[in-house]
Amino acid sequence: MKIFHISLTMQGNKNVSLRYFWDNASNYKEHELPLAEIQELRDRADTRYYTNLAEDYATTGKELYKWLDKCDRLLANALNQPRQQGLVIAIATDKGLAHLPWELLHDGEDFLVKKRPSIIPVRWVSKGQQKAIELLKSPDANSPENRPLNLLFMASSPKGVESELGELEYEAEEADILEATARTPVDLRVEESGWLKELEYVVNGYQNDLDVFHLTGHATHQNGNPCFLTEDEYGDCVYSNSGNIYDTVRSSFPSLIFLCGCRTGHSSDGVVPSMAEELLNMGATAVLGWGEKVRDTEASAASSKFYGELSQGISITQALSSTYQVLIDKGARDWHKLRFYIAATLPQSLVTRSRTPRRRQLPKPSNEVEFRDDEKRLRVATRENFVGRRRQLQNCLRTLKTDDEKVGVLIHGMGGWGKSSIASRLWDRLPEHEKVLWWRQIDESKLIKKLLSKLIKPELQEIRSFLETSGKSLDIKLTHLFNQLAEIGEKPFLLILDDFEWNLDPDEGQHVLKAEVAPILEALVQAIQETGTNNRIIITCRYDFDSELLEFFYKEGLEPLKDAELTKKLSRLKHFSSGKISDSLLRRALDLADGNPRLLEFFDGILSCVDAEAKLTQLEQSPELWKYKIIWKELYQLIDEPLQKILSHCLVYKIPVPMVALEAACDELPNYQQQLQRGLKLGLIEVSSNLQEENRIYRASRILPHLIPNIKLPEAPEVYSLCQKAHEKLHQLWGNKENKSEEKWQEIFQLKFANKENPKRFRQGFSEMLAVQYNSEADQAFEGELRKCTNELLEDKLCTKLENYLQQQHWKEADEETAWIFYQVMVRENYRMWRELLENFPCETLREINRLWLQNSNNNWLSQTRYVKLTKEIPI
Question: Is the pTM higher than 0.85?
């Protein structure tokens, strides 16, 4: 790899010199120019590049190339040198040069980053030193590490910034990286909270072998200084500057930091450096960042391609070259905003190729567990193997640490969703509390013994005696205990009541506290309230039970793992991630598990069997062999016929929806609101983690149809009217320009198209898409759902309605109908691109459209119609 340096040296107060050299800083060519000339370049960049209506990028790139090339053709001569291993153009960042978009450099033929062998512009933080950059092959040796790439990933998406900067799909990028590196795996470790303090714990687990730290999220400026929007332990926004990030990772400093956030590589005025420059000035080796606002999808595509290359032993600059190429080929708008900064050294390949002899293998997927109780009965995921649940943890921590009106949290939901593991993580995050764990059935005398076992200091003897010998009631004992501990400065208690369903009795279709348990819980709640101390309670339970005491608890319902959380969980399961199981078998196992962590682990064991397909078939046909893992037998008696009908109607939605949408689907059934609440309390309806109840969304568990045959969608034709009703409600809620979720639009259109009694459903869906023009998510969702229904589209009489509209001179309707004809042909003929459609449009249909327009408009077409715009591109 050759490096062509372009440094900057002050010549007096008003002039500078650009020095061009290879590996010997003393052997340079020089060009002197006024400092004002750089300012002029920066001003032009502000008006022609950093603007919504940017000048053609090739024009900008040519201008920058010409400015560097000078009349001596210094840059052109450098490019003509042999560069079999590629070429790096290291351009100093001094005096505002970092503000210029060097990634656009264009030699009149093409952008330099598209050249082969590769040419990569690099931003060089030279700190005024005239010294050639050193090629760094490995931090500690003269060769790459002979092992898989070690990548530490943290995504941050604070609450409260979504409306301003757009909601970040904070785990999608991680999932893309996992997919891109599937064939050459990366040792990807994830910090799950978005909180720098937790990140420091993960970093400390490395032994100076961290290759890359990837931080993704939103970045901005505060008080004129660049910062990254990270989260605190509650998910609230923290403005973290470069120093905060440096201090967090310095114990095992990586070879490369990728700040995957908008403007992390942007230096605006030549005075305030970018975050990337600041980190390099603090001691970082190399930093990738984005020079401006960037689309999440393009940032994600760049990350996945870059790490896919890096994991295969490709050098950083070669990987960066491939990343630029892929983004350009995909038509990415923001490809040129990806900026690479280095200081004194340039890292090359961080690891060896995958088939290098004696290369260390990737650690096998671990599903290690730990036990929180002394009897080793309570089995939970270890801190390292815990997946997702970020918002649920933050919601609970907020209550436990800051809400004086609440005494604790109730974590409820179906068996296997990881309630105990969430409680275990809360255990880790509350070191200021003394933990008391109770598993299953509560007993007053044994509870006192548990508390006594924590009072071992000599100065606590008086408190011990009071608990042991006093004949007072439990609430008085607890009140005395909590008061005394607070007065002498001892830690407050965190009481974890796990598997609390053992303390409940069924009652009129729901659950209530057992008679002997109610006074114990009441005593705990009253003692905490009366003393005003920081003692807190965590209850994990399959059910949200009926009790007035729950007014003093925050309720955190759960939902299955999905999307990136599910991808992470599967990557840690040996057989799901082995690549040796057929896709059809994997899909069947995933369908049965429906994102339930306990079932995923169970079915991973099934996939390990030689006769996995036969065993899976048996489990599909005989759910009684596994349903006990998630649902108790007594619960089936509570799922009566009215509740079964409610749950069946809720299945019309494939994604979680607001409660009013579930109500709309069930409003013809008796007591539907009461029954929906029953389903929710029994853990049969999943709930999202939104802190405010009005923002939560719900979904009927997809496991239920496997377990209870009567829970299923109604038969036709009843299901058609149900789909129409569900569609109307979702369209009312989500069918607007503000909805930028493709998933939500897919749900709207799939429900619309499911009503096969409506022959106009496809045309009506097209009108709904047109009503939110320039909403690309709605466009993509409509096209995707329509392609699933290709066989249901009409093949003849395409122009009948168009003729009627034209005859009545309903020009707007005729305009839309013409576009609809084109759309149908595109889908039916399976054309993927609009240009492909225009080049292959059926002549007979086109002539008929042309004839109808000519015949009915007296050759006076409306110039603004879609038809005229379309036919201008087609030879008739």
Answer: no
